Amino acid sequence: MNALDWLLDSDPAIRWQAMRDLSDAPAEAAATERAKVATHGWGAELLARQAPDGRWGGDPANEEWTSSPEWSCLVTLAQLREMGLDPQSTEARRAVALVREQVTWKWWDKNPFFVGEVEPCINGRVAAIGAYFAQDSQRVVDRLLGEQMADGGWNCEQENGATVGSFHSTINVLEGLLEHELATGGTDEGKAARLRGQEYLMSRRLFRRLSTGEVVDPAFTQFSYPWGYHYDVLRGLDYLRVAGAASDERAVEAVDLVEQKRAEDGRWMLENPHPDQLDLDMGEEEGKPSRWNTLRAMRVLRWSDQASR
Question: Cβ distance 300 to 237 under 8 Å?
Fold first, then answer.
């Protein structure tokens, strides 16, 4: 079985995206498959886990941030967005309404979930989730625009004295600003800020220090899923794909890295998984072929080839 057939022989969340992005299937066929995300497989399982109070678990008494109910909402809604759950479906509208009406940020003045909190790496994800699910995320977007640093990036440690951007924070904000732009048309200010942030990544060739050219972190060259707030080269390239970025020689090395990681059977492995992420068995195991990474890598390479023509 080749890599594309392997993707098509999978959960609806993978299958419909492979149909749309890799197989050139009719749009109607991909849409029919996408509708199944709400009622079959991983998407349906996540939706069924939501409690009447809008949350997906978590312990309000636990002081660990990643054990909080708010975190459970963040990572679950982020995953449903990645799965392509139709935001207009009855199931999505119900789940998001419960979050909107009942979930607040415990440590940040009880802000409603879609207003966000204080860290750009979190607020970028809130903006992406809100825009995707047709929620008003303008307040959190405005906050992010006001926090962009002089080098074009963002950094969650800015309030603690950080003076330069962070790859991790910046990719989360870029994805949020792009999703908001796609959903609303965006503003000149927002587009300009996003392009400055995009230039932050490009000027560093997506994984190298601007000052020395050294690799910032070896983990950036390892492809994980789900990625949470963590940056890696594949995530950066997939953002550029969605943004419709033009061909740029500064991305060539990163694209070559993706190609080099393709196994002989045409698939990509799961590397460097992050244990603080979603508790959902999607058949992903470290060091084994990953459908999510294979889907993302194949469409990044397709985008790169088309952009360079």
Answer: yes
What confidence tier does 219 reach under pLDDT thresholds 50, 70, 90? very high
Q: How far apart are CA 248 and CA 305, in angstroms?
A: 12
What's CA 299's distance to the chain center, in Å? Answer: 15
Kindly tell me the burial class for residue 76, based on how many C-beta atoms sit within 10 Å of its own C-beta (0-12, 13-18, 19 or more).
buried
Name the nearest CA neighbour of 221 among 210, 235, 201, 204: 235
How does strand 104-105 pair with strand 111-112? antiparallel
Distance (Å, whole) CA 228 – CA 223: 12
d(CA 38, CA 83): 10
What count of residues does the chain have?
309
The CB density around residue 288, as the number of other CB atoms within 10 Å, is 10
Predicted confidence (pLDDT) per residue in 154-185, tens digit: 999 988 889 999 999 999 999 999 999 999 99
SS3 (DSSP) at 270: strand
Q: Please check whether residue 86 is in contact with residue 35, taking contact to mean a CB–CB distance below 8 angstroms.
A: yes
Contacts of 250 (CB under 8 A, 6+ apart): 202, 203, 205, 206
Q: What share of the chain is helix, strand, coil (3-state, %, to 5)?
A: 55, 5, 40
Q: Are 154 and 124 in contact (CB under 8 A)?
A: yes
* Position 93 pLDDT exceeds 60: yes
